[in-house]
Amino acid sequence: MSTVDSSSHHVYVGSNVVVKIIDATGHSRLNREIALAPHLPSGITAPLLGSGLHQLGTGEVRYACYARVPGAAPGMGLPGVDAATARLLAEEAVQRLHVLHGWTPPADAGQTLGEELDHGGFVSQAALFAEVESLAALDRDGIVPRRLLDGLTAIAERAPSYARAVVPVHADCHWGNWLARDRSVTALLDFEWARFGDPLDDWFFLARFSGPHLEAVLDVVAHATETSLNALRAECEVREACYLAADLRVALQRPGASAPAVADNVRDLEELIVERLWWRRAR
Predict the structure, then answer these.
(1) CA-to-CA distance for 8 and 214, rounded, in angstroms?
(2) CATH H-level superfamily of 2-67
(3) Residue 115: which pLDDT band, with cuts at 50, 70 and 90?
């Protein structure tokens, strides 16, 4: 089996199976994925073959073994993908997400989806205001320029009062978590962040990590959901503001935070607020 890069697991890929392993005392998100896997709509993800705990030395590891689905991840930013293929992949991804959003989970899966999860996404306008205030209070060294904090506040002022939590969402469906083959989507992987949310939580991830095809993916989603492009842009902007503010707040709370990681988040804020990422081609 070959090793696959992962920031939170040991992942091994064979000709027919994929195995994910994590220290049992680590985060519990793999437990969430294992609990959901048997109940997810047919054909949407890789079938779970087995899972459990294994004693390893003085500790335990948790594992999940999946059938390997044909295809490869298009990758964050859709590198090397032409415009026509990007649109085809987005159309199929939207269709699969529609199936997920329309799924009525059984009681056990519904309980898992409803469990509290600190996902860093949009919850409410008040929560976003509080996140920005917390970030400003923590930033004693002025790492985050005032104009960016003011920009986050302005986005919060335009945000809806609350986020809906009405359907199952994947909540991490960037293009590194999809598989595709021959210009066709074959699976959506990694349901560790799945929860009840708003379909917009998934449309954000699909568009944001499409690289140069962001506008094409927004257009696909707008047509498929009968949503105006400007409304979609505004909702995506709010969600990105939440994630970036939360990431920066967590980084500043952590002693010895990685300076490059913080700098990357600040650059992303510049792109969001100063360069107006979601509005560059708005009419």
Answers:
(1) 27
(2) Phosphorylase Kinase; domain 1 (3.30.200.20)
(3) very high
What angle separates helix 199-208 from helix 229-253, to the nearest 10 degrees? 80
What's the whole-number mean pLDDT along residues 88-97? 98
The DSSP code for 69 is P
Task: Give the model's confidence band at 156: pLDDT under 50 very low, under 70 low, under 90 confident, else very high.
Answer: very high
Q: Strands 184-188 and 195-197: what pairing?
A: unpaired
Residues 174, 217: Cα–Cα separation, whole Å: 12
Hey, what are 74's tokens? 């298009």
Gap between the Cα atoms of 265 and 245, Å rounded: 9
Task: Identify the CATH homologous superfamily for domain 83-279.
Answer: Aminoglycoside phosphotransferase (APH), C-terminal lobe (3.90.1200.10)
Q: Is the full-model pTM beyond 0.85?
A: yes
